[in-house]
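Hi P.,

Sorry for the delay on this. The queue was packed all week, but I finally got your sequence through. Input first:
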Amino acid sequence: MNEYSGSRRGCLKVSLVVGTYGPREAALSRFLDSVRGLPSDGVEVIVVDQNPDERLAQVCSSPRIGVELTRMRSAPGLSRSRNLGVSAARGDVVGFPDDDCWYYEQTLGVVGATFDQRPEARVVCGRIVDEHGAPYLHDRWPSQPGWVSMPDTLLFLASAALFVRRPALIDVGGFDEAMGVGAWHGSCEELDVARRILRKGGRIWYEPGIVVGHPRAVASGLGDPMVHRRRERSYARGLGYLLGKEGAGVLMGIRLVGVPLVKALVRLLMLDLGRSCDCQQQAMGRWEGWRSGRGCTRRRLVGTGVGCDPASGTNT
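Then the structure:
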């Protein structure tokens, strides 16, 4: 982890909102250890515990990590837990680390310095690496810093390395609770927030010096394949829902579904039945999400009594 060590620190107060659920004691402990020793007046950690029991009570002992720590309770749902954490946050900037990620020594220092140097930025994002320092989630993160456009948000934004000025997040209504892990549309909640901020005139800066560690996911061939495919289908719904509620038309819907269907056919011809099934689930999930998002958009436009919350796109 020392490869990314450094000493730059910004002067902004940063709130770190960590939603967690399930048997994550060891993973959460590693994250909290990674923020040990940071200036206590510049960082607060808010753990939003979605478990019905007290399994995290000891892990969340504040003196254990040497920074201010608040533990809150929430019903399951990643976006719901993040919104709850943001409501209690006191920082100028809010970050959303995964409960199984970790920070390097300089991570928050570069975040603060970047916001100081780019006062016009409402969002600052970085890159993610695995245990060996190899790129994670994306094969190649951009090596140069720069402003992030709307199309770029689909290419290299990830919530674990996303930091948002708190007023900008509140201004767009927070996270859509119909999206994210634990919701039917199980992903893309961070892209949705970033894109809504862009639409309101905010700007997003990418800084490759912001590095967050994350363990590489277990290979899809391990464990229960049905559980894996349900998860992949849920994740795919998130992207479909995001683009559908933004008004993406039929041609985009066909493209969303067509790409994984072609991949499914290619895998089938190669007799790779497992990967073919994965691609089929992805296609079905994207279609379901797109239809759901489009339906929400239509109800908003016609002004019926059953509409969508303008901030989240969820039915009301």
